[in-house]
UniProtKB/TrEMBL annotation:
<comment type="similarity">
    <text>Belongs to the COX11/CtaG family.</text>
</comment>
<dbReference type="InterPro" id="IPR007533">
    <property type="entry name" value="Cyt_c_oxidase_assmbl_CtaG"/>
</dbReference>
<keyword id="KW-1133">Transmembrane helix</keyword>
<dbReference type="Pfam" id="PF04442">
    <property type="entry name" value="CtaG_Cox11"/>
</dbReference>
<dbReference type="GO" id="GO:0005507">
    <property type="term" value="F:copper ion binding"/>
</dbReference>
<comment type="function">
    <text>Exerts its effect at some terminal stage of cytochrome c oxidase synthesis, probably by being involved in the insertion of the copper B into subunit I.</text>
</comment>
<dbReference type="GO" id="GO:0005886">
    <property type="term" value="C:plasma membrane"/>
</dbReference>
<protein>
    <recommendedName>
        <fullName>Cytochrome c oxidase assembly protein CtaG</fullName>
    </recommendedName>
</protein>
<keyword id="KW-0186">Copper</keyword>
<dbReference type="InterPro" id="IPR023471">
    <property type="entry name" value="CtaG/Cox11_dom_sf"/>
</dbReference>
<keyword id="KW-0735">Signal-anchor</keyword>
<keyword id="KW-0472">Membrane</keyword>
<keyword id="KW-0812">Transmembrane</keyword>
Length: 195
């Protein structure tokens, strides 16, 4: 093999190794961005209230929380907050609910993606319970109120007086497809057993 070909092979191997290292590092970077910057927990768990609620009382500080909700065009649901705003004291636990209704004639599985604005407030908005931690299944025509429990960390920057919590609901095609096939699989098994 000539020197030029060896050099090309070495370059290609280096590029492949660099690409692998870059791809491998994306997972922890993505986790850091979601959890630390945007306040989205990727492990599907809630923040414990004791981890956020201060042990000693904090100064009297109130913040307005605005609620927003929307659905992706592929999801045949109605989805909105049951209250548009709530005045909350930092360091205390509050709960709100979102209204969801499946407008279709079949069960549908959805997943919600939360976001907090302004972005610099996202690390101070802690959810201790949220429908966004798991997939949500609504039967045909079903209506449900979905709860969110949250705490605003007292360390929220002093110039942030309004925080907006938004959710976008998406259809989970794979889970919806599995759900639609489950009754057929059960009926097929029953039919075989009765033969």
């Amino acid at each position: 093999m000539s020197g030029a070909r060896k050099s090309d092979v070495v370059k290609l191997v280096c590029v492949a190794v660099a690409a692998f290292a870059f791809t491998f590092s994306l997972v922890p970077l993505y986790r850091i961005a979601c959890e630390k910057v945007f306040g989205i927990r990727l492990d599907g768990s809630a923040v414990s209230e004791s981890a956020v609620v201060p042990a000693t009382p904090v100064a009297e500080r109130w913040v307005t929380v605005e609620f927003d909700g929307s659905v992706n065009s592929k999801l045949p649901w109605s989805f909105r907050p049951n209250e548009s705003t709530k005045r909350v004291r930092v360091g205390e636990v509050y709960e709100t609910t979102y209204y969801a209704h499946n407008n279709s004639a079949v069960p549908v599985v959805g997943s919600a993606t939360p976001s907090v604005a302004p972005a610099r407030a996202s690390g101070y908005f802690q959810k201790t319970e949220c429908f966004c931690f798991t997939l949500q299944t609504l039967q045909a025509g079903e209506t449900r109120d979905m709860p969110v429990r949250f705490i605003i960390d007292p360390a929220l920057p002093a110039d942030v007086n309004t925080v907006t919590l938004s959710y976008m609901f998406y259809k989970n095609d794979l889970a919806t497809e599995r759900l639609s096939q489950a009754p057929r699989a059960g009926a097929l098994t029953t039919a075989r057993a009765t033969r």
